[in-house]
Amino acid sequence: MVMDATITGVLHPYWPRDLLIPTYVANDRSMSEILVFLFSVSGVFLLVTWLITGQKGATGRLSTPRRLAVCWFAVCGFIHGVIEGWFSLYYAAIPGDQSFLSQLWKEYSKGDSRYVIADNFTVCMETVTAWLWGPFSFWAVFAFLNNKPYRFVLQLIISLGQLYGAVLYFFTEHRDGYAHSELGHPIYFWFYFVFMNVLWIFIPFVLIVDAWRQLSAAQSHTDITKSHKSKRN
């Protein structure tokens, strides 16, 4: 990616090209290093959770779709709580900071420069995501592993929050005319901006439907049980 100088003389690779980022310092880690870290750690969370969910519990083994859902929540806990948590705490310092997670965000910002300018929406959205959906995701993992009765309530709450945040994320950038990315770029636009975020639309939607069905079935069973008891009385 070509780096142009703004009127302040600071070189940066972000869009729009006249964006002012006076404290920006270029990464000293490569894109491959950053992506390998992200996907390796996410893979470890996924693998460990997959192995744990394969153990037979008091109510038997979880089904394959349920195991995949629990793995999703484990990875979400890491991404929301650690990576997005870092952004929520250090968003103002990220452009000039060379900590690994700050460099990760500077790399991702090539697909959405709102993160490197501490855009109000992204700061608010990521803060809510980090401090609510991060801990809640780990709580959901615990709930499913221990067959807690509230597990599908958690699934519904988390997934609704994720879906709502992702829809607003795309819609606000659409309203801005996709000005914060190189529109059409195969990596920065299609992979970073589109693919890495559309997952939080598709998967939460599937989990919302699943939670709806599970909770509806539970309520139907409760209603039938109450009906039978009232008839006996």
Secondary structure layout:
Elements: E1 4-5, E2 11-12, H1 31-53, H2 64-90, H3 100-108, H4 120-145, H5 151-175, H6 188-232
Helix pairs in contact: 1-2, 2-4, 4-5, 5-6
Summarize the biggest pleated sheet.
2 strands, antiparallel
Counting DSSP H or I runs of 4 or more residues, the number of helices is: 6
| Helix and strand composition category | mainly alpha
- Strand order, largest beta sheet: 1-2
List how many beta strands DSSP finds: 2
* Backbone shape: elongated
Strand composition percent: under 5%
Residue windows where pLDDT falls under 50 for at least 5 positions:
none
Question: What's a concise summary of this model?
Answer:
This protein is mainly α and 233 residues long.
Describe the fold and architecture.
This protein has 233 residues and is an all-alpha fold. The protein is 67% helix and 2% strand. The chain is built from 6 helices and 2 strands. It has helices at 31-53, 64-90, 100-108, 120-145, 151-175, 188-232, and strands spanning 4-5, 11-12. It has a two-stranded antiparallel ribbon with strand order 1-2. β1 (4-5) and β2 (11-12) form a beta hairpin. α2 (64-90) runs antiparallel to α4 (120-145) and α4 packs antiparallel against α5 (151-175).
